Amino acid sequence: MADRADVLRAASLAAFGGLVATIFGVAVVAMVAESYATWEWYFRMERAIAFARPLASALFVLSLAGGGVIVALAPRD
Fold first, then answer.
1. Would you call 1 helix, strand, or coil by DSSP?
2. Is there a contact between 74 and 3 (Cβ–Cβ < 8 Å)?
3. Among 54, 73, 75, 76, CA closest to 11
4. What is the distance between the alpha carbons of residues 11 and 36, in angstroms, rounded to a whole number?
5. In angstroms, rounded to a whole number, what is the distance separating the alpha carbons of residues 12 and 67?
6. How many helices and strands (H and E) does the chain possess?
7. In this structure, are residues 65 and 16 in contact, taking their beta carbons and an 8 Å threshold?
8. Is-contact 17 72, C-beta < 8 A?
9. How far apart (Å, rounded) are the C-alpha atoms in residues 69 and 5?
């Protein structure tokens, strides 16, 4: 059975992975927009950024809090 520290560690890593995936997704859209250089793709880039900003902010806070919890619950040998 997993203890509380393992569950919190997994949740923190999941939040960090989601943050990285979100940033990577926006970066891919931005690179495609720059390669096509059309207003339609620039608009898609802006929409991707507008969608990802609150999501990335929430995932960042969760990752930061999870990292603090991991440090707080680390064994002190």
1. coil
2. no
3. 73
4. 38
5. 7
6. 2, 0
7. no
8. no
9. 8
**Which tokens belong to 73?**
């619950």
State the pLDDT confidence band at 70, using cuts at 50, 70 and 90: confident
The amino acid sitting at 3 is D
Alpha-helical (H) ranges within 1-77 are: 4-36, 39-72
- The single-letter code of the amino acid at 16 is F
C-alpha distances in angstroms, 53 versus 9, 19, 26, 29, 46? 24, 10, 10, 14, 11
Distance separating alpha carbons of residues 42 and 50, to the nearest angstrom = 12
The 10s digit of each residue's pLDDT in 25-44 is 999 999 999 999 999 999 99
Task: Give every CB contact of residue 1 below 8 A, 6+ residues apart in sequence.
Answer: none
